[in-house]
């Protein structure tokens, strides 16, 4: 059934469906119960599934992820919420040292089907630690899978797939898009979780993005179209693994690539994409792969975030520079 | 002059040298260092858990400790011979591990550190399997679910949270199994251990926190970790803590059984502090002569866990010379078996690097495996062309 819903609601519906389908699925996190989470993503779930399955936890992120690992070892499929991006670091050790490595350590004997949900990114005028994009810090770690939906439909289906995954998945939710509404067909057959999607076809240059930056890139493509430029927009959807085949196919057609993310450019996912696409498409490229993202500075106070975050003009500027080669 | 500046000029004792509160902590002991079986009014609550112990059981505990020590000594030798890269000896901690390990039921679940060779023995893990990670052929060579004995955890304290989560799952499943998490005095300082105490208390999880206080975290004495006896920490989290003579296998067995029974009957977590001593180095890479003297070691040698049980077995006529002779032969056979198994342990296949990085696969791992295969094959081609 197709229905228009906000991205936050789509995650909520997806979690509800997972709780209904599998008694081993658990929701854990700070304020996820009665309050329904600070973004209301888990709204109503504790009321309907009880405190044993939708669990308000102590305020200790390492404890949340560490106990989720134990529950997974017992056969449960915990979906844990980290309240904000900047709060994940107390759990970083458990995620990197244990969650990511236990399957390999056990020579494949144990599986860790844990989903770590992290509302991430800026643009909502928040205080410090509430606007960060730490995905590259996780993508560097083998054993983890990293995804980020850009729209309601993907939020719904990618969450279903993340919960079904036998690998740990870090699920980055673009918090500034939580209230954006789009059609969700809850009966469609979804494509593969880690495959990129062309959301707008074009011929002159490829814009690759994920999460909150996909919508921006579509706006950039609209603006460029007015100037007679045809931009292709690729929604990467997954950061680990990255769908290099789809990026390559697009770049072989457009011959130019600009990668956009909110995370700092330095050592960001754009750097990895630039290196690999340069290797794969060396003779197709008409310009170096350019990147637009955050600066190598702490995320600024809210009154400055518009300057820090990639916006329409900064991405258009990069497009112009790439096209000028 | 302000109050603050006056205070600043006062000579102050550093926190590290200040003595703990003067009340002497209770120590549960059922077998004295001289091998005398004791009953104490205060211990009566624990004594009943070993009241019906048979001479055969006692010989079994003795055998477990002797064989564990023999295995441990063999592993140390194998490291010295270059067969293992590292070994973390449990010498001196046999009673704590065998006592607690034998208190468990098959359906209970163990979350060890990297030194629980005696507990692994009790769980039926083949001791040679413990050596793969120390030889460097894997990072943990056994199936955690076949003996309900998790893989060794090297980052200290992390496993206390896994144990707590697992115990939360046990409670959800409605069974009366219990979970035991091992850790040491050093790990007691880790935030994860404090969080495990918090979570287990809040959710009333059926978990026993078994802390082997062996007095030393590599070179740091327990005074560098705590200002109160460790078992007293439990009180602040809302569950009981008890200090047991960690070199008394009977007391460790009794106290752990008591704690497990609390877990099974829905009374939640318990902290057991087994007061013991690491007789050897932290690992084969460590040099304890740099930070502690012989005097301390000699004092603890007099409290040896194996010796005291032997004295008791002999004085009570629970074991004869034949038993000890047979065990000696069994020990030597075990040492030989371990030695041969380690020497025969093959290096892993090169492609093991990529195996099990993910359960459901990962495109980049596939790509890099293919690149690695092509690179390896290039040597074969070159050799073939000669």
Please tell me about this protein's structure:
The complex is a heterodimer of chains A (325) and B (386). By secondary structure, chain A is an alpha/beta fold. Chain A folds into two domains: 2-185, Thiamin diphosphate (ThDP)-binding fold, Pyr/PP domains (Rossmann fold); 197-324, Rossmann fold, CATH 3.40.50.920. Chain A has twelve helices and 14 strands. In chain A, helix 1 runs parallel beside helix 7 and helix 3 (61-73) packs parallel to helix 4 (92-99). Chain B is α/β, with parallel strands linked by helices. Chain B folds into two domains: 23-343, Thiamin diphosphate (ThDP)-binding fold, Pyr/PP domains (Rossmann fold, 3-Layer(aba) Sandwich); 351-385. Chain B has helices spanning 3-9, 44-47, 55-80, 94-101, 117-123, 127-130, 132-135, 158-173, 191-202, 233-237, 249-264, 294-301, 305-315, 321-343, 363-385, and strands spanning 109-111, 179-184, 207-213, 216-217, 220-221, 241-245, 270-275. Chain A binds chain B through residues 52, 57-58, 60, 62-63, 65-76, 90, 93-94, 97-98, 101-112, 142-143, 145, 165-167, 194, 240-244, and chain B through 138-141, 143-145, 150-151, 153, 155, 158, 160-170, 172-173, 191-192, 195-196, 198-199, 202, 355-360, 362-365.
């Amino acid at each position: 059934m197709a229905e228009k819903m906000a991205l936050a609601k789509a995650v909520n519906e997806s979690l509800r469906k997972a709780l209904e389908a599998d008694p081993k699925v658990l929701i854990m996190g700070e304020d996820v119960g009665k309050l329904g989470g600070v973004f209301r993503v888990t709204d109503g779930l504790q009321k309907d599934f009880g405190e044993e399955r939708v669990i308000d936890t102590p305020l200790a992120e390492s404890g949340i992820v560490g106990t989720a690992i134990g529950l997974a070892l017992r056969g449960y499929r915990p979906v844990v919420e980290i309240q904000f991006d900047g709060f994940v670091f107390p759990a970083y050790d458990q995620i990197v040292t244990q969650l990511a490595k236990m399957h390999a350590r056990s020579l494949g004997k144990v599986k860790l089907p844990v989903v770590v949900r992290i509302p991430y990114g800026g643009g909502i005028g928040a205080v410090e630690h509430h606007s960060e994009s730490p995905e590259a810090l996780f993508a560097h770690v083998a054993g983890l899978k990293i995804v980020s939906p850009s729209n309601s439909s993907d939020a719904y289906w990618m969450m279903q797939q993340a919960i079904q995954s036998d690998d740990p998945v870090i699920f980055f939710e673009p918090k500034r898009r939580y209230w954006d509404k789009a059609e969700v067909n809850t009966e469609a057959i979804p494509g593969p979780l880690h495959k990129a999607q062309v959301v707008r076809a074009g011929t002159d240059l490829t814009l690759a993005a994920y999460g909150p930056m996909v919508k921006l890139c579509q706006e950039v493509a609209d603006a460029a179209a007015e100037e007679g430029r045809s931009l292709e927009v690729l929604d990467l959807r997954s950061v680990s693994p990255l769908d290099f085949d789809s990026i390559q196919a697009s770049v072989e057609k457009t011959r130019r690539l600009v990668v956009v993310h909110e995370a700092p450019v330095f050592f960001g996912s754009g750097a990895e994409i630039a290196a690999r696409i340069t290797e794969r498409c060396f003779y197709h490229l008409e310009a170096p792969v350019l990147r637009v993202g955050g600066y190598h500075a702490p995320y600024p106070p809210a009154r400055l975030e518009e300057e820090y975050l990639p916006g329409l003009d900064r991405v258009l500027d990069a497009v112009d520079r790439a096209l000028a080669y | 002059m302000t109050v603050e500046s006056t205070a600043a000029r006062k000579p102050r004792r550093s926190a590290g040298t200040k003595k703990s509160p003067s009340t002497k902590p209770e120590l549960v002991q059922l077998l004295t260092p001289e091998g005398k079986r004791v009953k104490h009014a205060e211990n009566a609550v624990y004594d009943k858990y070993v009241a019906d112990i048979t001479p055969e059981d006692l010989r079994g505990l003795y055998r477990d400790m002797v064989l564990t020590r023999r295995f441990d000594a063999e592993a140390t030798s194998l490291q010295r011979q270059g067969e293992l890269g590292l070994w973390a000896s449990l010498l001196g901690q046999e009673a704590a591990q065998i006592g607690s390990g034998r208190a468990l039921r098959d359906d209970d679940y163990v979350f060890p550190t990297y030194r629980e060779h005696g507990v692994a023995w009790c769980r039926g893990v083949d001791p040679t399997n413990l050596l793969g990670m120390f030889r460097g052929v894997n990072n943990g060579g056994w199936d955690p679910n076949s003996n309900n004995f998790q893989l060794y955890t090297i980052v200290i304290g992390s496993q206390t949270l896994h144990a707590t989560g697992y115990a939360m799952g046990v409670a959800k499943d409605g069974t009366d199994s219990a979970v035991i998490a091992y850790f040491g005095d050093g790990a007691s300082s880790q935030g994860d251990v404090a969080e495990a105490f918090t979570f287990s208390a809040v959710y009333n999880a059926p978990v026993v926190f078994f802390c082997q206080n062996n007095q030393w975290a590599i070179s740091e004495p327990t005074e560098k970790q705590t200002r109160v006896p460790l078992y007293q920490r439990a009180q602040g989290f809302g569950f009981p803590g008890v200090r047991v003579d960690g070199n008394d296998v009977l007391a460790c067995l009794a106290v752990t059984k008591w704690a497990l029974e609390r877990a099974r009957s829905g009374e939640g977590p318990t902290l057991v502090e087994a007061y013991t001593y690491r007789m050897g180095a932290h690992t084969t890479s460590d040099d304890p002569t740099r930070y502690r003297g012989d005097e301390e070691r000699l004092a603890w040698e007099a409290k040896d866990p194996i010796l005291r049980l032997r004295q008791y077995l002999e004085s009570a006529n629970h074991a004869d010379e034949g038993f000890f002779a047979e065990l000696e032969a069994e020990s030597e056979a075990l040492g030989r078996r371990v030695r041969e198994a380690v020497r025969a342990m093959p290096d892993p296949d090169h492609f093991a690097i990529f195996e099990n990085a993910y359960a459901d696969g990962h495109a980049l791992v596939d790509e890099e495996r293919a690149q690695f295969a092509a690179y390896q094959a290039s040597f074969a081609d070159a050799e073939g062309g000669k």
